[in-house]
Amino acid sequence: xNKSKKIRVKEVSKKFETHHQNIYxxxxxxxxxxxxxxxxxxASLFISNLQTSSLALAYSIYSFPYxxxxxxxxxxxxxxxxxxILNKKYNNVISTINRIKVKVILPLVLINIFSFIIVIPAIxxxxxxxxxxxxxxxxxxxxxxxxxxxxxxQNTLINSIGKVKIKSISGIIINLIYFTLLVFVxxxxxxxxVALLHTxxxxxxxxxYEKIIYKNYISKKLI
Length: 223
Hints:
The chain is built from seven helices and no strands. The protein is mainly alpha-helical.
């Protein structure tokens, strides 16, 4: 049994290498992390130090539930869903993910959004933050929390049907548009504009990836 598994893994690995999948996975990895890693440093070149600090703190608060869910996903759901995909049990994949959306993703997001109501005033008082835009930045960023967490599951589904190439190329295009607009928005509308642009970017990316999933899962009648 173990031998057959090793053979299967070797065949899959060979297929990825043959079709340059490793390159596309590398590009996709860059696409996935670039907005989280570069938004604040790039924006800081065009906004004041106070605005940068305010936005960075708001971004950290916004990112925490995303990272928390990523850990939960990796530990509890990734192996289970991957196993279903390898066995081509796509009906079970969709039903499992629908349960996760209702029982895990949505409650986690709602808990964090409501906790922001308590956390934000406490942070403002504790750190003596005088920036009037801080609360608005957190609110704008928190609006994109659901599609941001949703992206983790979207990545799993798209990767499972071998559409990494289209996802990586689409990701490059949308990231280039985002970073180009980021420079303009940071100059023109400061940190509030950056927070709003990031929210629009996350929603746009989520809609794009959802179309890839819909086209390949539903049009091919895999569900």
